[in-house]
Amino acid sequence: MKRPASASSEIAVAQRRARPRPIDAYLGQAAGRDAGIALAYLEGGHTQTAIARVAGLSVSRVSRLVRAHEAKGKT
To answer: Which of 6, 28, 52, 57 is the 20 to 30 Å CA partner of 41?
Structure first.
């Protein structure tokens, strides 16, 4: 008996994952803009390019904010 396609282990995790919240939701609900940017990238799976476009920043600035957020969590 075949298993339903949704339960198949052949479907990639990324395809089974729920759609992420919009970037604006991360920016508005986080403790600050910088934290929202980092969470949109780290938890939401948004690209740094898309986040930069929405936040009105350069991609390199977004990258630095994400790195700083990650460093805070490790110390």
So the answer is: 6
| CA-based max dimension of the chain | 53
Model-wide pTM > 0.70: yes
Is 37 a member of any domain?
yes
Radius of gyration of the chain (CA): 16
Roughly what angle, to the nearest 10 degrees, separates helices 33-42 and 48-55? 150
Q: Kindly give, in sequence order, each residue whose CB lies less than 8 Å from that of residue 38, ignoring residues fewer than 6 positions away.
A: 65, 66, 68, 69, 70
How many separate domains does the chain show?
A: 1
